[in-house]
Amino acid sequence: MKDIRGSLRHLPRARAPWYWPILRKEFRWTIKPSPGPHPLRRCIPLGIIIRDILGYTSSMREARRVLSEGKVEIDGKIVKDYKYPVGLMDVVHIKPTKEYFRVMPHPQKFLWLHPIDEKEAEFKLCRIENKTMVKGGHLQLNFHDGRNYLIRLANPMDPVEDVYKTLDTVKLAVPRQEILDHVKLEKGVLVYIIDGTHVGTIGRVEEIKQVFKRRKAAVIVADKNGGKKATILDYVFAIGKDKPLISLPEW
Predict the structure, then answer these.
(1) In this structure, are residues 42 and 111 in contact, taking their beta carbons and an 8 Å threshold?
(2) What is the pLDDT of residues 89-140, one digit of tens each?
(3) Cα(first)–Cα(last) distance of the chain, in Å?
(4) Which domains, from first to last, does the chain contain?
(5) Three-state DSSP class for residue 165
(6) DSSP letters along 79-105, please?
(7) pTM here?
(8) Spacing of C-alpha 46 from chain mean position
(9) Which of 56, 87, 155, 228 is 20 to 30 Å apart from 107, CA to CA?
């Protein structure tokens, strides 16, 4: 998917991501997401979720009013910005209706909302995009949704606490941000394909063949029907070892 650019304040509907459920020729402009945890090509503005996906309002004016009243939470925190970029694995809570949704990859719609229960809404899965050393010799994990998590090392020369690797997944409690579990991205784990031709596919990693960069390593994923999908490591998201850490949709 190519980068999508618009003006500084507005986004032409014709150039909006194809998976946004909006009418392309109804008006000229649509919402341009605010700078935030997810890039434009991998997010849906909160206003579009309220108006076009969930259908709680008939206009953006009404959606903005609902949000201004603090009726919607993202990852356990109230969000009032109708331009807020909601993306992969985010947990959306509609307070008046007590509904919870997780943003998941979809084979036709790219990103969509999967209903979950209140217990599951207490955590989300985050992929480690990179690791950096910070002041004091401690380790910082940088996640796919813009979050950072500090791993304090007793001895930076012997970092026994560093069991994490780039592209691994952590189960993170929200909003208190505490790591509950860790899944290494390796052969045999359950994964979600989050981009490319086979987006939305759920299966197990059968083979990883790395030649140069790890993110570009070739991966073979076997789905539940026995089919095999080829993609790259950067397009897979580990979701569990023997069983998934999250409930999965039936699409």
Answers:
(1) yes
(2) 999 999 999 999 999 999 999 999 999 999 999 999 999 999 999 988 899 9
(3) 22
(4) 11-118 (3.10.290.10), 122-183 (2.40.50.740), 190-240 (2.30.30)
(5) coil
(6) ---TT-EEETT-EEEETTTTEEEEEEE
(7) 0.91
(8) 14
(9) 56
